[in-house]
Amino acid sequence: AQSVAQPEDQVNVAEGNPLTVKCTYSVSGNPYLFWYVQYPNRGLQFLLKYITGDNLVKGSYGFEAEFNKSQTSFHLKKPSALVSDSALYFCAVRDPQNTGFQKLVFGTGTRLLVSP
Amino acid sequence: GAVVSQHPSWVICKSGTSVKIECRSLDFQATTMFWYRQFPKQSLMLMATSNEGSKATYEQGVEKDKFLINHASLTLSTLTVTSAHPEDSSFYICSASDPRPYGSYEQYFGPGTRLTVT
Q1: Between chains, do A103 and B46 touch, taking CB under 8 Å as contact?
Q2: Which of A15-20's residues contact partners 24+ apart within 8 Å by CB, and which partners?
Q3: Cβ distance of B112 and A42 shorter than 8 Å
Q4: Which of B7, B44, B74, B95 is paired with B26 by a 20 to 30 Å CA distance?
Q5: Is residue B101 pLDDT above 80, yes or no?
Q6: Mutate which of A102, A108, A111 to disrupt the B interface (most B C-beta within 10 Å)?
Q7: Mean pLDDT over residues A72-96, rounded?
Q8: What is the pLDDT of residues A36-58, one digit of tens each?
Q9: Chain B residues bordering chain A (beta-carbon distance below 8 Å)
């Protein structure tokens, strides 16, 4: 069964500095990987996804993520953080080869706090 | 992009009553919808997978008689919390799966419904 790990409960960064939110995954086949952001009392907003192709994926709001198959990682990055990026970030994986292939498995979430 | 709505956005009900939450895909047809539950400061827990015209598939540990799911059309799924109790208070989020482009089945999430049972 697929799984996702987000090892950091919270990441603190100063505005203007680069940020990284870590994610590692485990699937039996080739993964579909996703990052979502959640603001308080709101649903999830899609940031980016990796299906196939270029390992560096660019998404919404200046975020990007790099798929690393050997390290089974899909870390979320942004070159220059904004205070408005403060939110809860979820990494998710889908295993398209498995039964229930549409199901997403989420990590536990990482709270990003960007200080002015 | 695809839009999914939920109604109501928040609801307060008394213990023992039932509450219905609607999830609609506004600009695409969703053969599959998902219902999640999220506790404060925790991740999303998949409750069930809802397929249009058939019975929902519930995850292990989710009471199907308590959380009734109906997916009557390609754009609407409903979750009814029956005989609600305070421990059912939570944030409920739905998502709808869009098969376009071919085979992508990307999930689009609703804004969530905050249920408080008093």
Answers
A1: yes
A2: A15/A81, A15/A82, A15/A83, A15/A114, A15/A115, A15/A116, A16/A80, A16/A81, A17/A80, A17/A81, A18/A77, A18/A78, A18/A79, A18/A80, A18/A81, A19/A77, A19/A78, A19/A81, A19/A85, A19/A112, A19/A114, A20/A75, A20/A76, A20/A77
A3: yes
A4: B44
A5: no
A6: A102
A7: 94
A8: 999 987 888 989 999 888 999 99
A9: 1, 4, 6, 32, 34, 42-44, 46, 49, 91, 93, 95, 97, 104-112, 114
Cβ distance A44 to B44 less than 8 Å, yes or no, reads: yes
Do A46 and B49 lie within an 8 Å CB cutoff? Answer: no
| A-B C-beta contacts closer than 8 Å | 48
Give the span between the Cα atoms of B24 and A82, in whole angstroms: 33
Query: Which residues of chain B lie closer than 8 angstroms to A49, CB-CB?
Result: 106
Calpha distance B95→B67 (Å, rounded): 16
pLDDT at B64 over 60: yes
Residue A82, exposed/middle/buried by CB under 10 A (0-12, 13-18, 19+)?
middle
| The predicted structure's pLDDT at residue A98 | 66
